[in-house]
Amino acid sequence: MKRIGVLTSGGDAPGMNAAIRAVVRAGIYRGIEVYGIYHGYKGLITGNIKKLEVSDVGDIVQRGGTILYTARCEEFKTEEGRAIAIEQLKKFGIEGLVVIGGDGSFMGGVKLTQLGFPTIGIPGTIDNDIPETDFTLGFDTALNTIIDAIDKIRDTATSHERRFIIEVMGRGCGDLALWSGLADGAESILIPEKTEDIDQICDRLSRGLERGKRHNIIIVAEGVGSADEIAKKIKEKNNMDTRVTVLGHVQRGGSPSAFDRILGSRMGSKAVELLLAGEKGKMIAIQNNHIVAHDILDLLTKKHDFNESLFQLAKELSI
Ligand code: F6P
Fold first, then answer.
1. What mean pLDDT is predicted for residues 203-229?
2. What does the entry list as the binding residues for ATP (predicted)?
3. Is the Cβ atom of 173 under 6 angstroms away from ligand 1?
């Protein structure tokens, strides 16, 4: 293999640039050329592809977002779209591809592999919703961004003796809510994996009030429902006023943490190593601090492991 490509797809995540840099430099270090594909699968179809040199990925390891841009591409989901993409890869002489993104992006990688084009995936999403990897790229940074925001909210919550409901990202996976809730001592954590009814939340608020607690933090993952709705229900049931903060896309931005920079670097280098070893259809993962690879097709049939013990611990500590 003499030439490979790299693209980012789906929602951006801090640490993607570190992974791009690693793919480019690990490739050049091993004597191959690396091409950047811009705007995800869309750029693969339109041929928005450019050779990347060592200096093109300088000064990016510390930057959030992705220098290759990202997009969600409907056309690539069609057979015609994928056929054009393969033609473009051939035209540029690219023989292997690294896809950095979430499970939707990996589906595209699997399709390319099935069409005979070797593809390796790197799990890049703040949601931490990919199976068989302890962490996805961007989760740690997003978690720290959330904690920083909650700490600030806590200052005003304490001063005004108010209850806050904070909505964080995570449609199908509550890891951002769970980990930030534990790290920040939230009274209630609402996640898609566990149904907790409004009565339980209200009871906890009342119990807290009885023992003199006059401010509360409730964290809700967006997949559970809107924070405004929960605020309305608490008002109806307990006649308690709350304030709502939806953190939104601020969670996706920012300079990656040291952990995400290192994870991106390790995963990017491993992806190149695998492609050069003739591997395909694999996703890089981190397990017990080892960088390993799993079959993507296998992964797509599994669900990310819910950390029950962490959930129980958060409950135990928020009595
Ligand atoms: O997949 C990452 C994610 O940040 C989700 O947590 C969130 O629901 C979604 O992306 C938002 O996507 P968009 O930026 O396209 O609205």
1. 92
2. 11, 72-73, 102-105
3. no
Structure tokens at 94: 């690219």
Instruction: Say whether both 75 and 220 belong to one domain.
Output: no
CATH number for the domain that contains residue 203: 3.40.50.460
> What are 274-298's pLDDT values in tens digits?
999 999 999 999 999 999 999 999 9
Please give the pLDDT value at position 317. Answer: 94
Same domain flag for 267 and 134 = yes
Residue 130 shares a structural domain with residue 260? yes
Are 92 and 109 found together in one domain? yes
CA distance 138 to 50: 25
Alpha-carbon gap, residue 156 to 52, rounded angstroms: 47
Judgement on whether residues 117 and 21 belong to the same structural domain of the protein: yes
Residue at 309 is within a domain: no
* pLDDT at position 319: 80
Residue of the nearest CA to atom 1 in ligand 1? 11
Please report whether residue 30 resides in a domain.
Answer: yes
Is 169 near ligand 1, meaning CB less than 6 Å away? yes
Residue nearest to ligand 1 atom 10, measured at CA: 11
CA distance 27 to 265: 12
Within a domain: residue 51? Answer: yes
Residue 298, Cα to own-chain centre: how many angstroms?
20
Consult the annotation and say whether 102 binds a ligand: yes
Domain span holding position 11: 3-138+256-299
| Residues near 123 by beta carbon (within 8 Å), at least 6 away in sequence | 101, 102, 130, 133, 136, 137, 267, 283, 284, 285
Instruction: Please say if 298 is a catalytic residue.
Output: no
Domain count, the chain: 2
The ipTM of this complex is 0.95
In the chain, the N- to C-terminal Cα span, in Å, equals 58
> Of 246, 168, 165, nearest to 201 (Cα)?
165
